[in-house]
UniProtKB/TrEMBL annotation:
Residues 2-246 form the ABC transporter domain. Pfam families: ABC_tran. Keywords: ATP-binding, Nucleotide-binding. Gene3D superfamilies: P-loop containing nucleotide triphosphate hydrolases. NCBIfam families: sufC. It comes from the Bacteria. This is Iron-sulfur cluster assembly ATPase protein SufC. One of its GO terms (molecular function) is ATP hydrolysis activity.
Amino acid sequence: MLKIKNLHASIDDKEILRGINLEVKAGEVHAIMGPNGSGKSTLANVIAGREEYEMTEGEITMDSADITDLDPEERAHRGIFLSFQYPVEIPGVSVTNFMKTAINETRKAQGKDDMPAKDMLKMIRDKSEMLEIDRKFLSRSLNEGFSGGEKKRNEIFQMAMLEPKLAILDETDSGLDIDALRIVANGVNKLRTKDNATVVITHYQRLLDYIVPDYVHVLYNGRIVKSGGKELAHQLEERGYDWIKEEVEA
Ligand code: ADP
Ligand code: MG
Ligand code: MG
């Protein structure tokens, strides 16, 4: 699904990613971990195509098509979803109405007509039931006065509605409490199919007790310096990152 080869990327002429190789196949869950400042969020943003980040070398393909020159909207239309670390408040626009607009905008970009209102309502009902989202929540103004857990609930609801092929969840700076952690984990687990894939970026090993990844990668200094299975996350929990830094420096 997603193939990244020798990716280098910079912000303001400072090189942050220094040769990333990563392949994510349908049905897989990958966790990306690593110390603060190692480039995890940069990687997520570069995959999503955010303009502040300049890709200076390498290749990113999605379903075998080169997406390097596509803007974030076009990447989203190809099924790439990046969770919003700093969600905007939109007073007067409900969670549901925001979602309806997002879905119909996506359909328009794909050359499709609006989703019939009846189908839209059914989808909203089905997905909110699956994720145990309260009716009242759906009619609230987007992000206005949302708690951390409610923001996560909204994010997972957006992911459920948009049905991305590849979801990238960057949880690093969001200070997840235990409730929010469970909301994210349950959502990811329920939305998991053999046709989609998830990349979870986290420095909370605890999240990976709930979302069991197929692969764990450690990003350090702009490179993936170690990859393994879920046991790698447990090793990191016990031993921290110093042994990895030592391995790299040796
Ligand atoms: P992580 O998510 O692993 O904590 P980041 O990708 O956020 O790491 O940051 C990697 C490096 O890039 C850090 O040194 C950080 O200071 C720098 N950086 C990230 N975003 C910006 C930005 N918008 N402008 C300048 N430097 C940035
Ligand atoms: Mg950080
Ligand atoms: Mg980060």
